[in-house]
Amino acid sequence: MSEAPSRVPQPSGSQAPLGTPQPTSHAGVQRSAIPTITEILRDRTGEEMELNDRHLNPQVGRIVRTLGFDRTWVSGEGAHLVDSTGQRYLDLFGGYGVFAVGRNHPQVIEAVQEVMEARTGNLPQLGVTLLSGVLAEQLLIRAPKSVGAMVPANTGTEAVEAAIKISRAATNRSCVLFAEHAFHGLTLGSLSVNGNEEFRSGFGPLLPGCRSVPFGDLEALRSELERGDVAALILEPIQGKGVNLPPDGYLQTAQRLCRQAGAMFICDEVQTGLGRTGRFLALERWGLEPDLICLSKALSGGLVPIGAVLVSRAAFDSVFDGMERAVRHGSTFGGNDLAAAAALATLRIIESDGLVQRADELGALLLELTRPLVDRFEVVADVRGAGLMWAIELGPPRSWARRSVWRALEHAQPGIFSQLVTVPLFHEHHIFCQVAGHRMNVIKALPALVVEEEEIRRFAFALEQVVGQAERVPSAFARFGLRTGRRMLRASVQRGRPARASQGARAQPSGSRLAQR
Ligand SMILES: Cc1ncc(COP(=O)(O)O)c(C=O)c1O
User: Fold this and answer.
1) Same domain, 448 and 495
2) CA-to-CA distance for 455 and 467, rounded, in angstroms?
Protein backbone atom coordinates (compact mmCIF):
# COMPACT_ATOMS: atom_id res chain seq x y z
CA MET A 1 0.00 0.00 0.00
CA SER A 2 1.27 3.48 -0.80
CA GLU A 3 1.83 5.94 1.93
CA ALA A 4 -0.90 8.56 2.37
CA PRO A 5 0.31 12.18 2.23
CA SER A 6 1.36 13.35 5.65
CA ARG A 7 0.25 16.74 6.90
CA VAL A 8 3.33 17.14 9.15
CA PRO A 9 5.09 20.36 8.14
CA GLN A 10 8.62 19.71 6.87
CA PRO A 11 11.61 21.85 7.74
CA SER A 12 12.44 24.14 4.84
CA GLY A 13 15.87 24.87 3.44
CA SER A 14 17.37 21.34 3.61
CA GLN A 15 18.52 20.02 0.23
CA ALA A 16 17.11 16.55 -0.56
CA PRO A 17 19.12 14.37 -2.98
CA LEU A 18 17.74 14.27 -6.51
CA GLY A 19 15.02 11.65 -7.00
CA THR A 20 13.78 11.66 -3.39
CA PRO A 21 10.29 13.02 -2.71
CA GLN A 22 10.44 16.79 -2.22
CA PRO A 23 8.76 18.26 0.85
CA THR A 24 6.43 21.03 -0.25
CA SER A 25 5.16 23.92 1.73
CA HIS A 26 1.66 23.74 0.31
CA ALA A 27 -0.67 23.53 3.30
CA GLY A 28 1.99 21.50 5.07
CA VAL A 29 1.34 18.40 2.97
CA GLN A 30 4.33 16.21 2.23
CA ARG A 31 4.77 15.16 -1.37
CA SER A 32 4.69 11.39 -1.72
CA ALA A 33 3.68 8.67 -4.17
CA ILE A 34 0.05 9.00 -5.23
CA PRO A 35 -2.05 6.09 -3.97
CA THR A 36 -4.40 4.18 -6.24
CA ILE A 37 -8.06 5.20 -6.41
CA THR A 38 -9.04 2.11 -4.40
CA GLU A 39 -6.55 3.12 -1.71
CA ILE A 40 -7.79 6.70 -1.66
CA LEU A 41 -11.42 5.64 -1.37
CA ARG A 42 -10.54 3.16 1.37
CA ASP A 43 -8.16 5.30 3.40
CA ARG A 44 -9.33 8.87 3.01
CA THR A 45 -13.13 8.80 2.81
CA GLY A 46 -14.40 11.34 5.31
CA GLU A 47 -11.65 13.86 4.56
CA GLU A 48 -13.50 15.49 1.65
CA MET A 49 -14.73 18.57 3.54
CA GLU A 50 -11.30 19.21 5.05
CA LEU A 51 -9.69 18.86 1.61
CA ASN A 52 -12.30 21.14 0.08
CA ASP A 53 -11.75 23.81 2.69
CA ARG A 54 -8.01 23.56 2.35
CA HIS A 55 -7.60 23.38 -1.43
CA LEU A 56 -10.90 24.01 -3.22
CA ASN A 57 -13.78 26.32 -2.28
CA PRO A 58 -14.25 26.84 1.46
CA GLN A 59 -17.25 29.13 0.87
CA VAL A 60 -19.13 26.22 -0.66
CA GLY A 61 -18.11 24.19 2.39
CA ARG A 62 -19.60 26.85 4.66
CA ILE A 63 -22.95 26.83 2.85
CA VAL A 64 -23.15 23.06 2.86
CA ARG A 65 -22.31 22.89 6.59
CA THR A 66 -24.70 25.70 7.44
CA LEU A 67 -27.59 23.87 5.81
CA GLY A 68 -26.46 20.63 7.42
CA PHE A 69 -26.07 19.06 3.97
CA ASP A 70 -22.50 17.99 4.77
CA ARG A 71 -22.80 14.30 4.20
CA THR A 72 -20.03 12.02 3.03
CA TRP A 73 -21.57 10.75 -0.17
CA VAL A 74 -20.17 7.29 -0.72
CA SER A 75 -22.23 6.10 -3.66
CA GLY A 76 -24.95 6.89 -6.10
CA GLU A 77 -27.45 4.62 -7.73
CA GLY A 78 -30.37 5.50 -10.00
CA ALA A 79 -32.28 8.42 -8.49
CA HIS A 80 -30.47 8.21 -5.13
CA LEU A 81 -27.35 9.28 -3.31
CA VAL A 82 -26.11 7.20 -0.38
CA ASP A 83 -24.19 8.60 2.58
CA SER A 84 -21.55 6.95 4.73
CA THR A 85 -24.15 5.72 7.23
CA GLY A 86 -25.95 3.90 4.42
CA GLN A 87 -28.85 6.40 4.37
CA ARG A 88 -30.36 6.84 0.89
CA TYR A 89 -31.45 10.30 -0.26
CA LEU A 90 -33.78 11.00 -3.16
CA ASP A 91 -31.59 13.24 -5.30
CA LEU A 92 -33.64 16.01 -6.89
CA PHE A 93 -30.52 17.99 -7.84
CA GLY A 94 -29.55 15.22 -10.25
CA GLY A 95 -26.04 16.71 -10.44
CA TYR A 96 -27.66 19.83 -12.01
CA GLY A 97 -29.58 17.56 -14.34
CA VAL A 98 -26.89 15.28 -15.72
CA PHE A 99 -28.25 12.02 -14.30
CA ALA A 100 -31.31 11.54 -16.52
CA VAL A 101 -30.63 7.79 -16.89
CA GLY A 102 -29.77 7.58 -13.19
CA ARG A 103 -26.46 7.59 -11.38
CA ASN A 104 -23.91 4.99 -12.39
CA HIS A 105 -26.07 3.29 -14.96
CA PRO A 106 -24.45 -0.12 -15.61
CA GLN A 107 -24.81 0.18 -19.39
CA VAL A 108 -23.05 3.55 -19.45
CA ILE A 109 -20.26 2.17 -17.28
CA GLU A 110 -20.02 -0.84 -19.59
CA ALA A 111 -19.79 1.37 -22.69
CA VAL A 112 -16.92 3.35 -21.15
CA GLN A 113 -15.19 0.11 -20.14
CA GLU A 114 -15.65 -1.29 -23.65
CA VAL A 115 -13.82 1.69 -25.12
CA MET A 116 -10.97 1.31 -22.66
CA GLU A 117 -10.70 -2.42 -23.24
CA ALA A 118 -10.71 -1.87 -27.02
CA ARG A 119 -7.73 0.52 -26.61
CA THR A 120 -9.25 2.65 -29.37
CA GLY A 121 -7.18 5.08 -31.42
CA ASN A 122 -8.80 7.94 -29.54
CA LEU A 123 -8.17 11.60 -30.46
CA PRO A 124 -5.93 11.22 -33.52
CA GLN A 125 -6.57 14.96 -34.01
CA LEU A 126 -5.39 15.03 -37.62
CA GLY A 127 -7.75 12.16 -38.32
CA VAL A 128 -11.34 11.16 -37.67
CA THR A 129 -12.93 8.57 -35.37
CA LEU A 130 -15.85 6.21 -35.58
CA LEU A 131 -17.68 6.73 -32.30
CA SER A 132 -18.15 10.50 -32.54
CA GLY A 133 -19.32 10.03 -36.15
CA VAL A 134 -21.94 7.50 -35.04
CA LEU A 135 -22.99 9.78 -32.19
CA ALA A 136 -23.46 12.71 -34.61
CA GLU A 137 -25.46 10.44 -36.93
CA GLN A 138 -27.72 9.26 -34.09
CA LEU A 139 -28.31 12.72 -32.64
CA LEU A 140 -29.09 14.23 -36.04
CA ILE A 141 -31.61 11.47 -36.82
CA ARG A 142 -33.46 12.46 -33.64
CA ALA A 143 -33.23 16.24 -34.17
CA PRO A 144 -35.32 18.54 -36.37
CA LYS A 145 -34.44 18.66 -40.08
CA SER A 146 -33.15 22.21 -39.71
CA VAL A 147 -29.83 20.90 -38.34
CA GLY A 148 -27.43 18.77 -40.36
CA ALA A 149 -24.02 18.67 -38.66
CA MET A 150 -22.53 18.35 -35.19
CA VAL A 151 -19.74 20.31 -33.54
CA PRO A 152 -18.46 18.37 -30.49
CA ALA A 153 -17.70 20.03 -27.15
CA ASN A 154 -17.05 19.01 -23.56
CA THR A 155 -19.51 21.03 -21.48
CA GLY A 156 -22.68 23.06 -21.81
CA THR A 157 -20.93 26.38 -21.76
CA GLU A 158 -18.54 25.21 -24.46
CA ALA A 159 -21.50 24.24 -26.64
CA VAL A 160 -22.93 27.72 -26.11
CA GLU A 161 -19.59 29.37 -26.91
CA ALA A 162 -19.50 27.41 -30.17
CA ALA A 163 -23.06 28.45 -31.02
CA ILE A 164 -22.26 32.12 -30.41
CA LYS A 165 -19.13 31.95 -32.57
CA ILE A 166 -20.79 30.04 -35.40
CA SER A 167 -23.78 32.41 -35.54
CA ARG A 168 -21.47 35.43 -35.62
CA ALA A 169 -19.26 34.01 -38.33
CA ALA A 170 -22.18 32.74 -40.41
CA THR A 171 -24.08 36.04 -40.35
CA ASN A 172 -21.13 38.41 -40.21
CA ARG A 173 -22.96 40.25 -37.43
CA SER A 174 -21.98 40.63 -33.80
CA CYS A 175 -25.04 41.06 -31.61
CA VAL A 176 -26.43 38.10 -29.67
CA LEU A 177 -29.83 38.60 -28.03
CA PHE A 178 -30.61 36.70 -24.86
CA ALA A 179 -33.46 36.57 -22.36
CA GLU A 180 -33.59 38.08 -18.91
CA HIS A 181 -32.96 35.35 -16.28
CA ALA A 182 -31.31 33.15 -18.91
CA PHE A 183 -28.55 30.77 -17.87
CA HIS A 184 -26.18 29.50 -20.56
CA GLY A 185 -22.99 28.85 -18.58
CA LEU A 186 -20.22 30.78 -16.92
CA THR A 187 -17.33 31.15 -19.35
CA LEU A 188 -16.94 34.66 -20.72
CA GLY A 189 -18.98 34.31 -23.94
CA SER A 190 -21.79 32.42 -22.22
CA LEU A 191 -21.66 34.82 -19.30
CA SER A 192 -22.22 37.67 -21.76
CA VAL A 193 -25.60 36.13 -22.60
CA ASN A 194 -26.43 35.28 -18.99
CA GLY A 195 -29.47 37.16 -17.72
CA ASN A 196 -28.59 37.08 -14.01
CA GLU A 197 -26.64 39.97 -12.53
CA GLU A 198 -25.29 37.90 -9.64
CA PHE A 199 -23.25 35.87 -12.12
CA ARG A 200 -22.19 38.75 -14.40
CA SER A 201 -21.21 41.25 -11.76
CA GLY A 202 -17.49 41.84 -11.35
CA PHE A 203 -16.37 40.02 -14.51
CA GLY A 204 -16.83 42.81 -17.03
CA PRO A 205 -16.37 44.08 -19.58
CA LEU A 206 -18.21 41.17 -21.17
CA LEU A 207 -18.62 40.57 -24.92
CA PRO A 208 -19.76 43.76 -26.64
CA GLY A 209 -23.02 43.65 -28.55
CA CYS A 210 -24.97 41.21 -26.37
CA ARG A 211 -28.37 42.61 -25.44
CA SER A 212 -31.14 41.20 -23.26
CA VAL A 213 -34.87 41.06 -23.90
CA PRO A 214 -37.58 40.05 -21.41
CA PHE A 215 -38.42 36.33 -21.79
CA GLY A 216 -41.81 36.14 -23.50
CA ASP A 217 -41.88 39.72 -24.81
CA LEU A 218 -42.25 39.61 -28.60
CA GLU A 219 -42.45 43.38 -29.04
CA ALA A 220 -39.10 43.89 -27.34
CA LEU A 221 -37.62 41.16 -29.52
CA ARG A 222 -39.07 42.67 -32.68
CA SER A 223 -37.59 46.07 -31.98
CA GLU A 224 -34.14 44.63 -31.20
CA LEU A 225 -34.18 42.59 -34.42
CA GLU A 226 -35.13 45.70 -36.41
CA ARG A 227 -31.71 47.19 -35.62
CA GLY A 228 -30.31 44.83 -38.25
CA ASP A 229 -27.17 43.80 -36.34
CA VAL A 230 -28.42 40.61 -34.69
CA ALA A 231 -26.44 37.45 -35.37
CA ALA A 232 -28.60 35.26 -33.13
CA LEU A 233 -31.22 34.96 -30.44
CA ILE A 234 -30.36 32.33 -27.82
CA LEU A 235 -33.15 30.91 -25.67
CA GLU A 236 -33.72 28.03 -23.29
CA PRO A 237 -37.14 26.67 -24.28
CA ILE A 238 -37.89 26.45 -20.53
CA GLN A 239 -35.64 28.61 -18.39
CA GLY A 240 -33.69 26.66 -15.81
CA LYS A 241 -33.41 29.57 -13.37
CA GLY A 242 -36.91 29.58 -11.95
CA VAL A 243 -38.32 26.93 -14.32
CA ASN A 244 -40.03 29.62 -16.41
CA LEU A 245 -42.25 28.25 -19.15
CA PRO A 246 -42.67 30.36 -22.29
CA PRO A 247 -46.00 32.06 -22.98
CA ASP A 248 -48.11 30.39 -25.68
CA GLY A 249 -46.80 31.06 -29.17
CA TYR A 250 -43.68 32.88 -27.95
CA LEU A 251 -41.01 30.47 -29.15
CA GLN A 252 -42.58 29.85 -32.56
CA THR A 253 -42.98 33.56 -33.23
CA ALA A 254 -39.49 34.33 -31.93
CA GLN A 255 -38.08 31.79 -34.37
CA ARG A 256 -40.09 33.28 -37.26
CA LEU A 257 -39.01 36.84 -36.41
CA CYS A 258 -35.36 35.71 -36.36
CA ARG A 259 -35.71 34.12 -39.80
CA GLN A 260 -37.29 37.29 -41.18
CA ALA A 261 -34.46 39.40 -39.74
CA GLY A 262 -31.69 37.11 -41.05
CA ALA A 263 -30.71 36.18 -37.49
CA MET A 264 -30.04 32.65 -36.25
CA PHE A 265 -32.25 30.99 -33.67
CA ILE A 266 -30.29 29.06 -31.04
CA CYS A 267 -32.12 26.66 -28.76
CA ASP A 268 -30.14 25.90 -25.62
CA GLU A 269 -31.31 22.39 -24.71
CA VAL A 270 -28.40 21.74 -22.36
CA GLN A 271 -30.84 21.23 -19.50
CA THR A 272 -34.13 20.53 -21.25
CA GLY A 273 -32.80 18.00 -23.77
CA LEU A 274 -32.54 14.20 -23.64
CA GLY A 275 -36.05 13.47 -22.36
CA ARG A 276 -36.06 15.80 -19.34
CA THR A 277 -39.31 17.58 -20.26
CA GLY A 278 -41.16 14.54 -21.56
CA ARG A 279 -39.94 15.03 -25.13
CA PHE A 280 -36.58 13.93 -26.51
CA LEU A 281 -35.91 17.63 -27.10
CA ALA A 282 -38.17 20.20 -25.43
CA LEU A 283 -38.39 22.08 -28.74
CA GLU A 284 -40.66 19.30 -30.02
CA ARG A 285 -43.43 20.70 -27.81
CA TRP A 286 -43.56 23.75 -30.09
CA GLY A 287 -42.42 22.21 -33.39
CA LEU A 288 -39.32 24.42 -33.47
CA GLU A 289 -36.64 24.15 -36.14
CA PRO A 290 -33.66 26.10 -34.78
CA ASP A 291 -30.45 26.84 -36.67
CA LEU A 292 -28.40 25.67 -33.71
CA ILE A 293 -29.18 23.35 -30.80
CA CYS A 294 -26.88 23.13 -27.75
CA LEU A 295 -26.68 19.84 -25.86
CA SER A 296 -24.70 18.64 -22.86
CA LYS A 297 -25.51 17.53 -19.27
CA ALA A 298 -27.54 14.29 -19.54
CA LEU A 299 -26.11 13.39 -22.95
CA SER A 300 -23.38 11.13 -21.56
CA GLY A 301 -25.27 9.68 -18.62
CA GLY A 302 -23.47 11.96 -16.16
CA LEU A 303 -20.26 9.92 -16.33
CA VAL A 304 -18.05 11.72 -18.83
CA PRO A 305 -18.07 15.45 -19.63
CA ILE A 306 -19.69 16.12 -23.00
CA GLY A 307 -21.23 18.85 -25.09
CA ALA A 308 -22.38 19.22 -28.66
CA VAL A 309 -23.94 21.77 -30.97
CA LEU A 310 -26.18 20.62 -33.76
CA VAL A 311 -25.85 23.15 -36.57
CA SER A 312 -27.72 23.83 -39.79
CA ARG A 313 -25.74 22.60 -42.79
CA ALA A 314 -25.75 26.12 -44.28
CA ALA A 315 -24.31 27.73 -41.14
CA PHE A 316 -21.77 24.95 -40.73
CA ASP A 317 -20.57 25.17 -44.33
CA SER A 318 -20.28 28.93 -44.22
CA VAL A 319 -18.01 28.76 -41.16
CA PHE A 320 -15.89 25.73 -42.10
CA ASP A 321 -15.65 26.74 -45.75
CA GLY A 322 -12.24 25.53 -46.84
CA MET A 323 -9.32 23.38 -45.77
CA GLU A 324 -7.50 26.32 -44.26
CA ARG A 325 -10.59 27.01 -42.12
CA ALA A 326 -11.28 23.36 -41.18
CA VAL A 327 -10.15 23.70 -37.56
CA ARG A 328 -11.08 27.29 -36.83
CA HIS A 329 -13.27 26.11 -33.98
CA GLY A 330 -12.81 23.02 -31.83
CA SER A 331 -11.47 21.68 -28.60
CA THR A 332 -8.77 19.09 -27.85
CA PHE A 333 -11.06 16.67 -26.02
CA GLY A 334 -14.18 17.37 -28.14
CA GLY A 335 -15.57 14.18 -29.69
CA ASN A 336 -13.43 11.85 -27.57
CA ASP A 337 -14.28 8.17 -27.58
CA LEU A 338 -15.22 7.87 -23.90
CA ALA A 339 -17.78 10.68 -24.12
CA ALA A 340 -19.17 9.42 -27.42
CA ALA A 341 -19.51 5.86 -26.08
CA ALA A 342 -21.23 7.06 -22.90
CA ALA A 343 -23.57 9.19 -25.03
CA LEU A 344 -24.46 6.32 -27.37
CA ALA A 345 -25.23 4.10 -24.37
CA THR A 346 -27.36 6.92 -22.90
CA LEU A 347 -29.38 7.27 -26.11
CA ARG A 348 -29.89 3.51 -26.16
CA ILE A 349 -31.11 3.45 -22.54
CA ILE A 350 -33.44 6.41 -23.07
CA GLU A 351 -35.10 4.53 -25.90
CA SER A 352 -35.06 0.96 -24.60
CA ASP A 353 -36.41 2.02 -21.19
CA GLY A 354 -38.96 4.46 -22.63
CA LEU A 355 -37.57 7.30 -20.48
CA VAL A 356 -39.05 10.13 -22.54
CA GLN A 357 -42.55 8.76 -22.02
CA ARG A 358 -41.73 7.96 -18.40
CA ALA A 359 -40.65 11.58 -17.77
CA ASP A 360 -43.88 12.78 -19.36
CA GLU A 361 -46.07 10.49 -17.24
CA LEU A 362 -44.22 10.90 -13.93
CA GLY A 363 -44.05 14.66 -14.52
CA ALA A 364 -47.81 14.74 -15.05
CA LEU A 365 -48.27 12.74 -11.83
CA LEU A 366 -45.99 15.08 -9.89
CA LEU A 367 -47.96 18.10 -11.10
CA GLU A 368 -51.25 16.39 -10.30
CA LEU A 369 -50.07 15.63 -6.75
CA THR A 370 -48.49 19.03 -6.06
CA ARG A 371 -50.67 21.57 -7.88
CA PRO A 372 -53.39 21.34 -5.22
CA LEU A 373 -50.86 22.84 -2.78
CA VAL A 374 -51.55 26.23 -4.42
CA ASP A 375 -55.10 26.15 -3.03
CA ARG A 376 -54.18 24.41 0.20
CA PHE A 377 -51.44 26.75 1.41
CA GLU A 378 -51.23 30.52 1.45
CA VAL A 379 -47.48 30.44 0.87
CA VAL A 380 -47.63 28.42 -2.34
CA ALA A 381 -47.85 30.85 -5.26
CA ASP A 382 -47.39 28.39 -8.12
CA VAL A 383 -46.43 24.85 -9.07
CA ARG A 384 -45.19 24.35 -12.62
CA GLY A 385 -43.09 22.20 -14.85
CA ALA A 386 -42.83 20.00 -17.90
CA GLY A 387 -41.92 16.35 -17.62
CA LEU A 388 -39.46 15.91 -14.78
CA MET A 389 -38.39 19.55 -14.71
CA TRP A 390 -40.53 20.78 -11.85
CA ALA A 391 -40.73 23.75 -9.48
CA ILE A 392 -42.78 25.14 -6.64
CA GLU A 393 -42.84 28.90 -6.09
CA LEU A 394 -43.44 30.19 -2.58
CA GLY A 395 -44.83 33.67 -1.97
CA PRO A 396 -46.06 35.96 0.80
CA PRO A 397 -49.09 34.62 2.68
CA ARG A 398 -52.38 36.53 2.55
CA SER A 399 -53.01 36.89 6.27
CA TRP A 400 -51.50 40.00 7.80
CA ALA A 401 -49.63 38.34 10.69
CA ARG A 402 -47.96 35.69 8.54
CA ARG A 403 -47.21 38.19 5.81
CA SER A 404 -45.31 40.45 8.19
CA VAL A 405 -43.18 37.54 9.40
CA TRP A 406 -42.51 36.61 5.75
CA ARG A 407 -41.48 40.20 5.00
CA ALA A 408 -39.14 40.31 7.97
CA LEU A 409 -37.50 37.05 6.93
CA GLU A 410 -37.13 38.05 3.30
CA HIS A 411 -35.81 41.45 4.30
CA ALA A 412 -33.08 39.76 6.35
CA GLN A 413 -32.18 37.28 3.58
CA PRO A 414 -34.09 37.14 0.28
CA GLY A 415 -34.96 33.57 -0.62
CA ILE A 416 -34.60 32.28 2.94
CA PHE A 417 -38.20 31.15 3.24
CA SER A 418 -37.49 28.31 0.81
CA GLN A 419 -34.97 26.93 3.26
CA LEU A 420 -37.83 26.30 5.69
CA VAL A 421 -38.84 23.72 3.10
CA THR A 422 -35.57 22.37 1.68
CA VAL A 423 -33.82 21.90 5.04
CA PRO A 424 -36.53 19.73 6.64
CA LEU A 425 -36.98 17.87 3.35
CA PHE A 426 -33.33 16.90 3.64
CA HIS A 427 -33.15 16.15 7.36
CA GLU A 428 -36.57 14.71 8.04
CA HIS A 429 -37.39 13.07 4.70
CA HIS A 430 -33.99 12.45 3.10
CA ILE A 431 -34.88 14.39 -0.03
CA PHE A 432 -32.09 16.50 -1.52
CA CYS A 433 -33.15 19.66 -3.40
CA GLN A 434 -32.55 23.40 -3.51
CA VAL A 435 -33.82 26.71 -4.84
CA ALA A 436 -33.88 27.37 -8.58
CA GLY A 437 -31.85 30.57 -8.48
CA HIS A 438 -30.30 33.29 -6.42
CA ARG A 439 -32.58 35.18 -4.02
CA MET A 440 -35.71 33.42 -5.20
CA ASN A 441 -38.28 31.33 -3.41
CA VAL A 442 -38.57 28.76 -6.17
CA ILE A 443 -37.61 25.20 -5.28
CA LYS A 444 -36.70 22.98 -8.17
CA ALA A 445 -36.50 19.27 -8.89
CA LEU A 446 -34.63 17.46 -11.66
CA PRO A 447 -34.89 13.81 -10.60
CA ALA A 448 -33.46 11.01 -12.67
CA LEU A 449 -35.98 9.92 -15.29
CA VAL A 450 -35.68 6.39 -13.87
CA VAL A 451 -37.07 7.58 -10.51
CA GLU A 452 -39.67 5.20 -9.08
CA GLU A 453 -43.31 6.31 -8.98
CA GLU A 454 -43.28 5.58 -5.23
CA GLU A 455 -40.51 8.12 -4.76
CA ILE A 456 -42.47 10.77 -6.64
CA ARG A 457 -45.42 10.10 -4.34
CA ARG A 458 -43.17 10.18 -1.27
CA PHE A 459 -41.75 13.54 -2.38
CA ALA A 460 -45.22 15.02 -2.92
CA PHE A 461 -46.32 13.79 0.52
CA ALA A 462 -43.18 15.10 2.25
CA LEU A 463 -43.54 18.43 0.48
CA GLU A 464 -47.06 18.84 1.76
CA GLN A 465 -45.85 18.18 5.31
CA VAL A 466 -42.95 20.62 5.23
CA VAL A 467 -44.83 23.38 3.41
CA GLY A 468 -47.55 23.06 6.06
CA GLN A 469 -44.90 23.43 8.78
CA ALA A 470 -43.25 26.33 6.99
CA GLU A 471 -46.55 28.16 6.69
CA ARG A 472 -46.71 28.26 10.47
CA VAL A 473 -43.74 30.54 10.01
CA PRO A 474 -42.77 31.70 13.50
CA SER A 475 -42.39 28.23 15.00
CA ALA A 476 -40.89 26.83 11.79
CA PHE A 477 -38.38 29.64 11.67
CA ALA A 478 -37.52 29.28 15.33
CA ARG A 479 -36.69 25.61 14.73
CA PHE A 480 -34.82 26.39 11.51
CA GLY A 481 -32.95 29.34 13.05
CA LEU A 482 -31.89 27.31 16.06
CA ARG A 483 -30.67 24.47 13.91
CA THR A 484 -28.82 26.56 11.31
CA GLY A 485 -27.46 28.83 14.04
CA ARG A 486 -25.88 25.85 15.74
CA ARG A 487 -24.51 24.64 12.43
CA MET A 488 -23.07 28.05 11.54
CA LEU A 489 -21.28 28.06 14.85
CA ARG A 490 -19.98 24.55 14.29
CA ALA A 491 -18.97 25.45 10.70
CA SER A 492 -16.99 28.45 11.88
CA VAL A 493 -15.40 26.57 14.76
CA GLN A 494 -14.27 23.92 12.28
CA ARG A 495 -12.75 26.69 10.21
CA GLY A 496 -11.02 27.96 13.32
CA ARG A 497 -12.72 31.33 13.62
CA PRO A 498 -15.79 32.73 15.34
CA ALA A 499 -19.11 32.80 13.44
CA ARG A 500 -19.24 36.56 12.96
CA ALA A 501 -15.67 36.99 11.81
CA SER A 502 -16.14 35.50 8.35
CA GLN A 503 -13.83 36.84 5.68
CA GLY A 504 -15.61 38.45 2.77
CA ALA A 505 -18.79 36.54 2.08
CA ARG A 506 -21.61 36.42 4.61
CA ALA A 507 -22.78 33.06 5.83
CA GLN A 508 -25.67 32.28 3.52
CA PRO A 509 -28.26 30.07 5.11
CA SER A 510 -30.38 30.69 2.03
CA GLY A 511 -28.12 28.28 0.17
CA SER A 512 -28.92 30.26 -2.95
CA ARG A 513 -25.32 30.26 -4.12
CA LEU A 514 -25.72 26.55 -4.63
CA ALA A 515 -29.04 26.96 -6.38
CA GLN A 516 -30.20 24.43 -8.89
CA ARG A 517 -29.01 25.39 -12.34
C1 LIG B 1 -29.44 25.83 -20.20
C2 LIG B 1 -27.99 25.71 -19.82
N3 LIG B 1 -27.06 26.05 -20.72
C4 LIG B 1 -25.74 25.95 -20.43
C5 LIG B 1 -25.32 25.52 -19.19
C6 LIG B 1 -23.85 25.44 -18.88
O7 LIG B 1 -23.47 24.12 -18.79
P8 LIG B 1 -22.09 23.74 -18.06
O9 LIG B 1 -22.30 23.97 -16.61
O10 LIG B 1 -21.86 22.31 -18.44
O11 LIG B 1 -21.05 24.64 -18.62
C12 LIG B 1 -26.26 25.17 -18.24
C13 LIG B 1 -25.84 24.72 -16.91
O14 LIG B 1 -26.55 24.63 -15.96
C15 LIG B 1 -27.64 25.27 -18.55
O16 LIG B 1 -28.59 24.95 -17.67
Assistant:
1) yes
2) 18
Same domain, residue pair 342 and 457: no
22 in any annotated domain: no
DSSP-assigned beta bridge partners for residue 292: 266, 311
Q: Could you tell me if 300 and 306 are in contact, meaning their C-beta atoms sit under 8 angstroms apart?
A: yes
Residue whose CA is closest, atom 14 of ligand 1? 517
pTM as predicted: 0.91
Structural domains in the chain (count): 2
CB 464: neighbour CB atoms within 10 A?
17
Nearest ligand 1 atom to the CA of 187 is 11
Residue 515 has what pLDDT?
A: 75
Determine which residue's CA is closest to atom 6 belonging to ligand 1.
185
Q: Which residues have C-beta atoms less than 6 Å from ligand 1?
A: 96, 155-157, 160, 183-185, 236, 240, 268, 270-271, 296, 517
Given a cut of 50, is residue 168 above it in pLDDT?
Answer: yes
Buried b (16+ CB within 10 A) or exposed e, 475-510: ebbeebeebbeebbeebbeebeeebeebeeeebbbb
Distance 436 CA to ligand 1 centre (A): 13
Contact 318, 115 (CB under 8 A): no
Tell me, in angstroms, the distance from the centre of ligand 1 to residue 270's CA.
6
295 C-alpha to ligand 1 centroid (Å): 9
pLDDT range class, residue 25, cuts 50, 70, 90:
low
What gap in Å lies between CA 105 and CA 303, rounded to an integer?
A: 9
Instruction: Indicate which atom in ligand 1 lies nearest the CA of residue 186.
Output: 11
| 138 and 275 inside one domain | yes
Is 516:239 a contact under the CB 8 Å cutoff? Answer: no
- What is the domain extent for residue 188? 106-352
